[in-house]
Batch of 2 targets.
Target 1
Amino acid sequence: MSQAKFVIEHLEPELGKWSMIEYKHISKFLGKDRLWVTNVKNLSGQEELKEYATVITEPTVDLKLKNVCVLDPEGTEVLTPEDAKSIDYYLFGGILGGYPPRKRTEKELTKFLPKDYVVRHLGPMQMPTDSAVYTVNEIHNGKKFEDIPFFDKPEHKINQYEIVQIPMRYVNVNGKPLISAELLDHWSKSDDSDQRFGLY
Ligand code: SAM
């Protein structure tokens, strides 16, 4: 089994707190060596990100990579372990999950990629980037998509008065949605609920 790299093309105008927390979380379960973050140019926070990932200024297309699979919810086929045998790089959009989804991966990433990149989806619901990366790593290691357990639109208790339903799919790891402790802490401290859940 090859050690594929996981490339996230950062597509938000800033390297905000939420994106940074997700990238750090991915680095924790995947390992720093397998995580590249591209398209990071003159962004506040990029020095900190270098502690967790290989940070690259150029957009991914300029790296002229071969055997690339882009994960796009608008893809027509689901990623399979069979596909994974010939993939060296998995490419994700570094995009926060707005609701309803606006097909930003297709409009801001896939559309500009070479035709020899494979395009695959991970089911009909959008996941945050860290759950998407975790799912792809499971498939790369031989698991079928349909055998991976998920939580759809889990509820999150903010405090004794407030429970919100998060409009995304999360991978189920040991009976819990894969959400980093740091993100839960960030949510509990943020006072704008729309921004807190990316619903803008
Ligand atoms: N709302 C965004 C859109 O409209 O494309 C989705 C962004 S999602 C939060 C971040 C990244 O995770 C996507 O760019 C994609 O690479 C990956 N992703 C999340 N859910 C996916 C799915 N169901 N199928 C394929 N890729 C997915």
Target 2
Amino acid sequence: LWLLCSVRRRQPGEPPLMNGWIPYLGVALEYGRNPLEFLRSMQRKYGDIFTCKIAGSYFTFVLDPFSYGAVSRQGRNLDFQKFAIGFSHKVFGHADFNDPVYSYNIKDIHSIFRQTLQGPVLQQLISTMMENLQAVMRRDEGHGWTTEGLQVFVERIMFEAGYLTLFGKEEEAEAMATGGATPRWLFMRQAMEDFHAFDKAFPEMAAGLPIHLCGRAFRAREALAEKLHHRHLKRNKCLSALIERRMHAFDQMEQLDEKEKARTHVSMLWASQANTLPATFWSLYYILRCPVALDAAQAEVRRVLGESGHTPGNLEKPVVLSKDQLAGMSVLGSIIEEALRLSSASIMIRVASENFTLTLDTGKTAAIRKGDHIAMFPQMMHMDPEIYEDPTEFQCSRFLDENGQKKTDFYKNGRKLRQFLLPFGSGVSECPGRFFAINEIKQFLTLALCHYDMELHDLAAAPLETDCTRAGLGILPPKHDVSLRYRFRNCVTVK
Ligand code: HEM
């Protein structure tokens, strides 16, 4: 009787409501199995806005991309920060920055993202990443033809280079001399194993399971935090401005202990890697599967290397590319955007801080209750055949216009969309690392095409599927890995 009485009823003016039939969980199981299919079927029944009970909370889905702006304009009634910080506190175990004692500092800390990841400072980050990528790739020199999973290949190179670019590195020779240091490759292998063990539990943690009940993930997070203690980071050279500034800010906050500071760095490690690794995987996967993409990418890399005066064959002279040169690589840009379109399944969530009325783009209104979540799921737009013809197909020049430049006009119902590709979120929650992310993927692809002969084992196999159990968390990884045969070339050439 109590259960029946506690079932929420739709009030006048509210969107259609789906309570589901399982107490507390609501429609969590149907949603979790395949969010895209579930939302499509709901859209067919209820239209572009409806509310679902999922694991004890009410989510109002806004599916019409023209109405995303209407949600963004509700900043006064819709909160993102409190929700995001609360989630981060639970998963990463750092201090609860929603506590008023931190209210002054948290704004300052947040502003560091834009100051250190965007604009002219990006050049330094790009240069360090380029050096690190080449140093990691050079380790494959002289090994001859090797077979490895493509995902393993991409991740071991990108993880190490990205980690060192943010957190710097201790000089190996120096570390050995002071005794007891782990060789860098081993340190990185352990860090990557811990990263994966922690990341694997993310869907459960996002669904509300406390990290203490995910034993391996908890131990992995603590092991990563141990590596990111300030006492270690302070010994490192080439720390990024992002981490240096955050360390300085945390050192000023007397309430934080050393463990809590280290755990905030784990959150930065996760943000910088969890999406970048699968996005890089898919970009290279599609290049290797599609001869047109491969030819176009090789031609672009050859042109850019030629313009920067790089002599083919000279392995001793590192490849250096400026921010502007990378920005001009529109073919790689289009390939990466297409790979992101096909694999991105992030969800943008806001929490209603008051009862209010949301007016959609069509003029239709919806009453929203305080405490309810508003959710936007851009994968619906990315897979919409009206916006993207044959949406499940990889088309390497989908994001190029007739002049070979970035294409920005996409239409729905005959209207031009202001936002048509949102792998990095939008509005207050838009990813501050998006420019660095696109650049580092372009750098990886450029160097991979320069330094390696590569072939996928089974080119005739059906395209890989994404692992949709991670929907909502960003870029989906593949369901399984594919075999890659590769050889490091002893000279820099592009075929
Ligand atoms: C947040 C996507 C790479 C740093 C986000 C969000 C998305 C996203 C969707 C918003 C999450 C939300 O709404 O809750 C991506 C994708 C990437 C990528 C697709 C790669 C392809 C990076 C990199 C960095 C980074 C390389 C840093 C070096 C961050 C940070 C936030 C964030 C710090 C949280 C911002 C905040 O709290 O306001 N990212 N990201 N991301 N991302 Fe990225």
